[in-house]
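Morning. Coffee machine broken again, so started the prediction first thing and wrote up yesterday's gels while waiting. Chain of 726 residues, entered below exactly as on the submission form.
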Amino acid sequence: MELYSEVQIKDRLKEVFGYGKFRGNQEKIILNTLSGRNTFVIMPTGAGKSLCYQLPAIIKEGTAIVISPLIALMKNQVDQMNAVGIHARFLNSTLSKGEMTKVKNDTLAGKVKLLYVAPESLTKEENIEFLKRANLSFVAIDEAHCISEWGHDFRPEYRRIKGIIGQIANIPIIALTATATPKVQLDIQKNLNMEEADLFKSSFNRTNLYYEVRPKKEAKKQLVRFIKERKGKAGIIYCLSRKKVQEIADFLKVNDVRAAPYHAGLDSAQRMKNQDDFLNEEVDVIVATIAFGMGIDKPDVRFVVHYDAPKSIEGYYQETGRAGRDGIDGHCLMFYSYNDIIKLEKFNKDKTVAERENAKFLLDEVASYADSSVCRRKQLLHYFGEEYKEGKCGMCDNCKHPKEQFDGTEEIQNVILAVEQTDERFSIEHLVNVLRGIESQHVKSYDHNKIPIYGVGSEESEIFWRSVVRQSLLNEFIAKDIENIGILKVTDKGRDYLVKPFPMELSKDHEYIPDQEEEESENVKLDTKAYDTNLFEILKGVRKKLAKRKELPPFVIFQDPSLEEMATIYPTTKQELAQVNGVGMGKVSKFGKPFLEAIGKYVEENDITTAADVVIKSSANKSKLKVFIIQQIDRKIDLEEIAESQNLDVAKLITEIENICYSGTKLNLDYYIDHVLDEERQDDIYDYFLSTDTDAMDEAMDELGDDYTEEEVRLMRIKFMSEYAN
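Came back before lunch.
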């Protein structure tokens, strides 16, 4: 057996990678691999897993096989190795026949130190035969959690790896993963026959990361504000679908963020360009599906945003781990709505029963994490089988802004008793039903409606009891059964607590209000409750004064939602004011001056930092329609013809015309209105809008009676607004 000195290893570390010392367990893992022992590595994202097999591969004689699930990851790591003078290649479906032959010949000639192989390529008979002839040093299985069907990213082809390696050669294995719960860890070891392997498990605590969950309400507006506050910093935004990735990337670009999309729907050249632009700082923000970032070593990612809820805590932890790899602070923000969990459950409907149950379990854990008001770090570490003993971490929203607490001594005892009296064989859902006295079919079939603890917590909600059960888990009064997923058992600490209880403070959960579907309209509405009420009243006064002077109804100048938005973002320039919903540059020129003066004075007097940089601009999917409509009206084309050409009905077209008009663009519809309404009838409606204080359609129809259709009144309202407001 070859012997390697620590000095020799450190020399190669400095020579090839430029590092003066190892981090954490790296040196022990490398020595273990060099000694020919099977090695199992659980190490968080960003802690330097790749080095644990790259350095031994460089030092040992022969070629190391690296089994990796992602083509993008392979390319990135091969490029990195070749850049430091180490001959690395990959073998996957992107290569032509000629390129594959060249890779194989170089490997057989002993030129290749690291050969990255996709698991699908490994199963091909011709590749197995080729590898049998090669001089192999060891095999590294990266992203080893893909082996476990209990993990968040199970891939059936990974289950065949051990058998195929056995066919090729009797060589050591190093399996590596960034995310493994105790259950998944056990499954990986069993599948690879590596129960005897030396285990190196690093702490999952990324002390430099700040974890935050926000309700998914006005998410686009929140997102722009969040990114603009970190102008020029590198960040990743994760979305669940390709469509959403493209939408958010386009949306950010029109809001002056240097952003690019990354998803499987892009052609490979564009995908690689976007990835390289991000690595080379040509782009600040990548909007991506979850595949992006695996194995990509960009140390200075300052924030990771989950625009949609993740599918699992493992995935969430791995993705957030791409922030702050350089040890400097990173911000991990999740926008959360239970609607996302429901959508994800629907995606799983075509899976097998077992896969569906496991996917549901993983989603329940995500919902629990988001809802809980306990220290986020404590929850994450507990999920991966690690205890956090520091109290409040100070680096998560729940520690920075603690929720209301209550004495939960009695509630914890009731949870422990519920687990005991149901023979430690059931999940959180069943236990909560027992405590609340819910006679579900499951509860009745086990006669659990007859046990003493049944119904003792009937006055509290399901959310309340789920929270108590989770906090009992975090405080180790009960524990998860590693062998049986979802099942809860009582710990020795829990049994002692029944005999000698002591006061335990529990936190009340967050209550996220389900989000409404985001507006698909050109503009994103603001949360009208968030505006500055003092400024809003001042602006109403300005509007009233101006309306009186110009002898116009106040709504002609600006409607209330426009004033509310002004009182939210404090626009102080013409350009900023023109971005407000229902304004536009036409109205700014006509009416804007006194409003800008009032806002400027208010901002100065109250020392307000304006949020003008978070004005939401539309992502132009409707701007083409807007231009088309204006051009067609200028050409005096019938509205029916315009509507038909755009697959709209006339009512929807009028809505589009209203949006254009209310944003300050003057439109002349006389050619059409004169055709449907005579002059006298036009005057009646015109006089109504001149004399009223509101442009509300329901009040207009009540006042004008049955003599006019809603379409006629809406058209006259557009004519009135165009002539008086624009």
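The domain at 403-507 is CATH 1.10.10.10 (Arc Repressor Mutant, subunit A). Going to sketch it on the whiteboard this afternoon.
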